[in-house]
Amino acid sequence: MLFSWDLLLTGFVDALTWSNLFWAFVGCLVGTLIGVLPGIGPSAGIAILLPMTTMIPPTSGIIMMAAIYYGAMYGGSTTAIVVNIPGEASSVPTCIDGYEMAKQGRAGAALGISAISSFVAGTLGLVGLTFFAPLLANFALAFGPPEYFALMFMGLSLVISLSGRALLKGMIATSIGLLSSLIGQNPLTGAARLTFGVVDLMAGLNFISIIIGLFAVSEVMINVERAATHIYGTKIRGWMPTWAEIRQCGWTMVRSSGIGFFLGLLPGCAPAVTTFIAYDVEKRVSKTPERFGKGAIEGVAAPEGANNATSSAGFVPLFAFGLPTGPALAVLMGGLMMYGLQPGPMLFQTNPQFVWAVIASMYIGNVILLVMNLPLVGFWARIALIPFPVLGPLIILCSVIGAYSIRFMLFDVWVALLFGVVGYAMRKLHFPIAPLVLATVLAQMLETSLQQSLLISQGSWLIFFNRPIAGFFMALALASIARGIWIQVRSHAPEIAIDDADV
Asked: Which of 172, 210, 411, 480 is most deeply packed, by most CB within 10 A?
């Protein structure tokens, strides 16, 4: 892939035609709605709309599908902030501080900084895609199973940070997450585990159902118990973040863009992983980390920035090598092949006009998302004003539809309801929920890469330490664990759980 200003300008000319602008707008709108609804996700959204794209030109079709993808990345933050229901797993870290801001009457400011951070990170990610794709694509190829395991292990070490002072409860929550991920078939051998002869359990527990239950269903149960008239009673204060807050989040956006973009180059490294890491990094570098979990605006900007940077980065290995980094991009790749376009190095040689038009359209799509969503901030924030006797049943209805739409299995709905009870119990007993979610998200790739690595090394664990990249991530993980334990020992403080709002 060779960069050329002429090709990029030609791409902008193509992307700015009325028809392509229209389909980019449609994609952004549909993607935002898909992101708002829990459970549907960009993969299902693109797959459902894929047949419709056969009726429009190939470039317009791919522009629309790409816009659905990064539009959904943004939309997931809306319900996470306003009603504490993450539309996607990647929006879970956004709940932590976003919902706290909403309860303080600052839902508009949280939604505004989410849109701005998404725009900045998405644009910076596109700059990386435009100018450095060949170099960065080779970075992705340097990762094998040992490097993936070390990276996932480092991600799991964030449990200590997410648990606060309730480390023991955080470890128990992590164990529940890992145990629930073991249900089903062994990813390598196919052997059944913990299924107890129940056929539905053979497919395993989908982590989206688990998240819907832990957040949406348990939220409704908590509000029913306290006979709430509104999901939170605080008056809305302001619709947008102040300039001081935007400046305060400046470096947060840059850091989260870098984390999201570089980790987003790796196949399988989902936005859910990068958003947790970006949130944790921001908490660690902050001079006032005690604000995190209580409505810190940087706690919203960091995961939302990483989320969108990850979505931009995923196009680097897709276009350069034909290597999708996640399910949504795999469906998008199917769309490319449906049009007779084979992603890979030759795509840039044989169809440069198409590729650069799509890349240029993504710059425009980011602007469309910003322009479209900032005026809607007030509309989304007003959801909180709906009386709870009306809003509660709507949340349950959306949760049931979202859980069922993942695999069209009634079993997933029961899983969501069961984990709703689990989430309710955890909140009442002051267990942090975020470690459980993180463990659920990481478990499958952690297990797969561990088994593959041990097969490669014939059972030797040294493979995680004698390869430079794997060794680097293992050292970071062990240092993170040691630091967390040291802080716990030094504080000599009784175990204090974060409150139920701190997820």
From this structure: 210
